[in-house]
Amino acid sequence: MYDTPDLVSGLAAEGYRTVCVGGVGFFNRQAPLGSVLPGLFQESHWTPEFGVTSPTSFASQVTRAEQVVRELPGEQRLFLFVNVAALHQPNWFHTPGATREDGDTRATHAAALEYVDRHIGRLFAAASSRRRCLAIVCSDHGTAYGEDGYTGHRIGHESVWTVPYAHFFLEPTAAEAAR
């Protein structure tokens, strides 16, 4: 338990470098609301290529996370927060041949998840490249795709309230541990 108002400042007080790589508009610093979450971190990154309308958002976010890790001194502990925008709507462009008019569906959401899966190994490799790493993977909300007649995530519905969660340790490779 930290005597701080939030986890991020508590970890900073313990010597962690705190960094976020934002995705959705809550991280874009373009308005007061978009400045609150990135303002918690010592270092924050957001560009339109990380945003929800970019078909390559997660690959771009991972590239930035890899850069952050690479540039840290070896002894520096890191708290890295990545807000994965690719799973957010719109996600139709993750399905080959789909158009904006086709809209978002469970199938396009699944395609967005497959896109994230293709790149998440790079993020995990970067995060664990220096030492053992605790990874927490979760969502901030679900999305309705027609359940009880609802679509989207700005509604009070079980499909929005139900979110995935996992936590696990990533071990460094033998070569990394020898450094």
Automatic annotation (TrEMBL):
Superkingdom of the organism of origin: Bacteria
Domain Sulfatase N-terminal: 5-159
InterPro entries tied to this protein: Alkaline_phosphatase_core_sf, STM4013-like, Sulfatase_N
Signal peptide limits: none
Official protein name in the record: Sulfatase N-terminal domain-containing protein
